[in-house]
Write a structure and sequence with these properties.
Largest interface: A-B, 38 and 38 residues
Distance between the termini of chain A: 31 Å
Helix content of chain A: 25-40%
Oligomer: homodimer
Radius of gyration of chain A: 23 Å
Chain lengths: ~400, ~400
């Protein structure tokens, strides 16, 4: 008997009919002889609506309270799913993050799972239950509810799969899997049959919304195969795993893009040791992820320091940076939130030159100006104007002949 | 420094504006130098909406799952209230029933509080917080969420007040206090300034919706003074306590009515020992409260057994009773759900005859047929046709001259 962990996202459980549809899929998995643990997200726009409600009470709700509020969304779905399964004559029980033993640190709003104590889940499985776990949430040692941040239900699912030594972790969503680019931008984009953890991690981090990067990372650490597929049909989806066949590796695998990019430049920074940490430590303490950092060559002992953050963090970042810039003698801060990142990802580029050149040429042909460039071993990212993003993705998809990919 | 427990019902927290209004009242109490613990209900129609949603998934949702689902309603209000208080620059923290230490038995849907472990509340109060507790819910020894049944937030409030040795427990609602009869039926009904626990218990049990009877009972056991008042103004409300002045005791204090009455009659029951327990034990096991029980005088060793239940329990009661009736040789079961109870309540009637006669005469003058009569030491109840309830309450209010009551 295999143990399967399935996760269903918000659009897959948006209303009573969709919950029943998912319940039928769960029953089918169970009836194949599997033990099933299911992680659910909040229904449709529930989380957004709760945030809206919170802001009516307080424009800046405290993270601790917001976590308790938002955690109710997933709890509601979990009980409704259990009820739907009972209606289909199957034993099922819903568990909150706390009951499922998901222990986290105290970073409200973006908590990290520290440990999973799956005793209760194991007991419920032994009693023949399908176990429905409210995703996205956990509990601190002080018994305060936390949430794992947006997309955290993916993380819940992979972490549970690893902890329970499941055979696979299946992430069901409203898309058919991982594509060579966003099909809404590039209609000829192809679904990938499989992809390696590292490549998926880069795609997810650099804008592919299919899966949360933390969940991919966890999958890689625990070597947990993750299937991403659509909850509305039986198409095969994309398998994320470690053993991607050799010949598929020597290629650009996909184009990611991200419109959630803001840039901050601190101008006229004195070029001396300790300046970078003076600027970036307060951001780290405020839990603001800084992505790309570029420091220009110093002229007359002054340099410009540029970095990017998510648009939602821009205001807070500027609040923190402006007084620091002043205190270290920088001339001023400027920011721009009309930017996009486009990235090409593939393990192939690790040992083969020419990818960067092809990328830059493709963008140049579209007269797209590149503002910043960053790279990893398997990724090249260009930061460009937001309104060029669509043209850039289309051009890159074509330049790397991804529409010819055999899946 | 006094400790005050306040409870705000669903209509008092129905939207963001009303929550802010309540937050202002809480702040006023705190600024008078009190420590404040607040128990909140779910917003407006939330509980009804969640039940509706559950029934879309499963016409008979399992009690355990329904409890988890419904408990989210109060949790949402508690966090929003804490956020509103933060917005008014006051320290506040929301606690779930579990966090507040409200331990219950495992009777899902109508759990009883077994113990309160207020350690966390005390800690939060010591840190200067206003503590907002999600009402209506608790946790079993197995860490499953329970609910206390409709109106259970009143019970949460009084139990917490007793456990914390609060000075008073204040129940805020959308009515001005306890009236001599429902003011919607009897416009000349008067608000009572004070009332004894026993009288309030009878009024609440027999239909006054102002407070949950269990909460009144708890108040009596722990001699906790309970103020019932309106959350939308500063009118004085009604104080429920033990020391009601002597001269106010010799009177009928109020008329209660209840439309939620169904009657079951088992016809032709063999009159032998053990029959009543054969019929009522299964109902008790199914957690169905049986109210009035009447057994006719036996004719030819056969009797008719009549009892009343809440309308919501009728279907389940009949399912249980019909096979039993058959097995004990009764001829058949009949039921009627178009009934009402009207009751007069007052400690005065304990030692003074004539109250029953006045009541029956008043009903007779309205040509209202009395189907069943039950009494306690301080109450007389008549079961009549539902469509006569309004006339009956008006006639009784007049017959006992309650409109002349000085408050």
């Amino acid at each position: 008997m295999a143990l399967v962990v399935q996760k269903y996202g918000g659009s897959s459980v948006a209303d009573a009919e969709k919950i029943k549809n998912v319940a039928r899929r769960i029953v089918a998995t169970k009836e194949k002889g599997n033990e099933v643990v299911v992680v659910v997200s909040a229904m449709g726009k529930t989380t957004d609506n709760l945030i809206q409600l919170a802001k009516e009470l307080n424009p800046r709700p405290e993270d601790r309270e917001l976590d308790v509020l938002l955690s109710t969304g997933e709890i509601v779905t979990s009980t409704l799913m259990a009820m739907a399964l009972h209606g289909m004559d199957h034993q099922a029980v819903s568990l909150t993050g706390q009951q499922a033993g998901i222990q986290t640190d105290s970073s409200h709003g973006r908590a990290r799972i520290t440990r999973i104590e799956p005793k209760r889940i194991v007991k419920e499985l032994e009693q023949g239950n399908i176990v429905i776990v409210a995703g996205f949430q956990g509990i601190t040692p002080d018994l305060n509810t936390t949430t794992l941040g947006r997309g955290g239900s993916d993380t819940t699912a992979v972490a549970l799969a690893a902890s329970l030594k499941a055979q696979t972790c299946e992430i069901y969503t409203d898309v058919e899997g991982v594509f060579t680019a966003d099909p809404r931008l590039v209609p000829e984009a192809k679904r990938l049959k499989e992809i390696g953890y590292e490549e998926m991690l880069e795609l997810a981090t650099y804008g592919s919304k299919v899966m949360h990067p933390r969940a991919v990372e966890l999958g890689e650490v625990y070597r947990m195969p993750i299937l991403v597929a659509c909850s509305f049909n039986d198409n095969p989806g994309t398998l994320i795993h470690g053993g991607v066949s050799m010949e598929q590796r020597n290629k650009v695998r996909g184009i990611a893009h991200d419109l959630n990019v803001a840039k901050v430049t601190v101008l006229g920074v004195p070029d001396r040791p300790g300046i970078a940490s003076a600027i970036f430590e307060p951001l780290a303490k405020a839990n603001i992820s800084v992505d790309t950092i570029v420091q220009n060559a110093s002229v007359k002992n002054l340099t410009d320091l540029t970095f990017t953050v998510a648009i939602g963090d821009l205001e807070k970042a500027l609040e923190l940076i402006e007084p620091i810039a002043k205190s270290i003698g920088a001339s001023k801060c400027v920011s721009d939130s009309t930017l996009a990142k486009v990235s090409i990802v593939g393990t192939g580029m690790l040992n083969a030159p020419g990818y960067a050149a092809t990328m830059f040429r493709a963008l140049a042909e579209q007269k797209i100006n590149i503002q910043l460039i960053t790279t990893s071993e398997i990724r090249i990212t260009c930061i460009i104007a937001e309104d060029s993003a669509k043209d850039a993705v289309k051009a890159l998809h074509k330049a790397f002949e991804l529409e010819r990919l055999e899946i």
